Amino acid sequence: MPLLRWRLAFEAMVELVVPSWDRTQDVAYRVRSLGDAWRSGVHLSPGGPALSVDGETLTYRELDERARSIAAAIQQIDPTGSPVAVLAQRSLDAYLGVLGAVLAGRTYVPLHPDFPPQRSAGMLRRSGAATVVVGPEADEAAQAVFAAVDRPAALVFPTRSAPGWASLAAAGLPVVGADLPSPGEAQPETTRTDSIGYLLFTSGSTGEPKGVGVTQANVSAYLTHVVTAYGYGPGDRCSQMFDLTFDLSVHDLFVTWMSGACLCVPSKRSVLAPGAYIRNEGLTAWFSVPSVAMVMDRLRMLKAGAFPGLRLSLFCGEALSAGLAEKWAMASPNSELHNLYGPTEATIAITAYEWAPGAVASGVVPIGRPFPGHEVAVVDASGIDVGESGRGELCLAGPQVTPGYWEDAERTGASFVELPGSTQRWYRTGDVVERSEHQGLRYLGRIDDQIQIMGFRVELVEIDAALRHALGTELAVAVPYPPGPSAEGVYAFAAGSDHHGDEAGALALCRDRLPPYMVPKRVFFVDQLPLNSNGKIDRGALRPVLEELLGA
Amino acid sequence: MPDLGPSVRAFVVETLAQRAAQLGFDGLEFDGSFDFFESGLLDSLGLITLIDAVETQFDLEMDLTGMDPEAFTTVDGLVRSLIPETA
């Protein structure tokens, strides 16, 4: 039993090596920060593999030395303690950037090289980051971002000399490349449990991404539960499927590292359909959105017994269909399968359901019960619990619920509330669920226009805004396909545009503002759009029109 | 069995060119090393749609079980993966 074995190992070293480490009655061990989680792995498995990326494997000791050297650079460049942005993707630099920021005691802010530069520049500005770590794969993106942002930042290049453009972008601020300080120069980080460990931006309904800051205490509660509950330990080889801008990546990195396991990073292309990668890398623990499994299934990669090495499979981020779960389980005959659920605002995931063959006949797999220490309420519009049999909006309370939206008291006040008859602080998820006696919670949909595209959380209103800007008309609207809360993409309808018929031009403008997964697949120009009784465009009425157009 | 390679390649290139025109991607050259994923022209679902179209058009059923997408996101790579005997 790996769970018992590693629990004993943890307990043996717990008080010896990590001063802030603590034991309580109901958990065997716990960490207080992301830095603690990293040090746990270093002590559990110093000579073991910590990271497999780009054909290279680094041990905990090697990665620790290099990360502490980045941490020292960050501390020397900016002693004020500002957040650190990481503009890198699936490279050694990306992981050195995150770890360097964490070990320097800073909030890390992931930026995506494939996102429009304007969007990343906005995130950089709003985060207040004074230092940016740049990977070689992001050189082009970095130059575009710095051209769009009005103030310079200090730059760190973890694995190479600074490229020529750096001194221009930094405009007199420090640029550190080949001349990194030694690991010994890093000062031990001082992080308070209420300090922000990472800051992410999600799609916002006003057309601007909104920031969610997650505290060290929030993420520590998650890690402490998950590492124990799923028996992670040294010897595990864990997938790193999620991009760093997606909060589920925090599970990948820090669950793996807290348990002394190896983080296995598939390349950007391998991520598309990682069947061969799972086998070639000898993965034991899997975590992805269901869409990845769906793509693998459509490419006929989910053959029975295809992945005998997997012992654990977790899915999260969007609805998992019963049929897909069944296929994944057939392909991974030695693996447990759990369906996780959780919004970024409540830290990575907060409920789980253990799937068993035949337990879910059809439809979607339930999202189960909350993690220990958390409470759920299912409420109506006035915040009153609907009781055991009703359906309503899911509200969450407990140690993983974050302080709220970054520098946005108004939105925070609207979503983080007190409920009638309770003194706790609750997060209103906007997700509609019902309770079931044996399976916990079942996910039904959204109360608003938020959807998931391949697991990415998207406000349709934000796509509408970009479309309307691109087409120069208010008569444009995005419609997800297939219908429902989990879509493969969106299509656009437009009427009365000055640019009528210029599909290519409209889509090019959308690409300047939206990340790739939010850009409509097509624009259909129509004579008029259906309106509802309030005179607003009736998105729902366009769904059958779209299905007909797509020949579904 | 006739060598399907050239006709599959022509079909793939034509499909990519149509998609590029629709999306407003300018200045792409669809030679053998053109990477339709790196260029942002197709995402994972675009790739599935393309492979479905090739299968339907040429009445093939591909086995990609052991394949890593590293090998099939270019025109040459895809044609080689779909029709191994042309490799």
Automatic annotation (TrEMBL), chain A:
SUPFAM superfamilies recorded for this chain? Acetyl-CoA synthetase-like
Could you tell me which residue ranges the AMP-dependent synthetase/ligase domain spans?
A: 46-406
Q: Which InterPro entries match?
A: AA_adenyl_dom, AMP-bd_C, AMP-bd_C_sf, AMP-binding_CS, AMP-dep_synth/lig_dom, ANL_N_sf
Which Gene Ontology BP terms does the record give? amino acid activation for nonribosomal peptide biosynthetic process; secondary metabolite biosynthetic process
Q: Which GO terms describe its molecular function?
A: phosphopantetheine binding
Q: Which residues form the AMP-binding enzyme C-terminal domain?
A: 488-536
Q: Which PROSITE patterns match?
A: AMP_BINDING
Q: Which NCBIfam families match?
A: AA-adenyl-dom (TIGR01733)
Q: What is this protein called?
A: Unannotated protein
What is the scientific name of the source organism?
freshwater metagenome
TrEMBL record, chain B:
Carrier domain: residues covered = 7-86
Name listed for the protein in its UniProt record:
Unannotated protein
List the source organism. Answer: freshwater metagenome
Q: Which InterPro entries match?
A: ACP-like_sf, PP-bd_ACP
Q: Which Pfam family is one of this chain's hits? A: PP-binding
